[in-house]
What we know:
The chain has helices at 2-28, 38-47, 49-71, 74-80, 83-96, 102-119.
Amino acid sequence: MQSYILLGIAIITTVLSQLLFKQGMVMLGGINFSLSNIFSLFLNILKSPYLLIGLFFYGISFLLWLIVLSKMKLSLVYPITSMNFVLVTIASYYLFGEKLSPFQMGGIFFIIIGVMTLSRT
Length: 121
């Protein structure tokens, strides 16, 4: 049971990191990537509290994921991480006003059904 709790926390911290990354990029106004401005891009990332906190949560998620992998079957836990997609999509709807198409809503439904089915094995 403890491994499932760690997996849940890993999923939540991944979702938080993605939402913080998005907010950080909204605040920065996007990226125009080229090799000539890579140093400037790196400095802008370091100046963004949203991106730095997002990196922190992403690191926590990574460490938790390694712990989960050491205790559980990859064939079980990896599909469960698809809840990341569900939670990020729903949070993006509420936090960023992103629209959800009927196909996205259907996909979310099927992901949830799949995770529930896998969790019973």
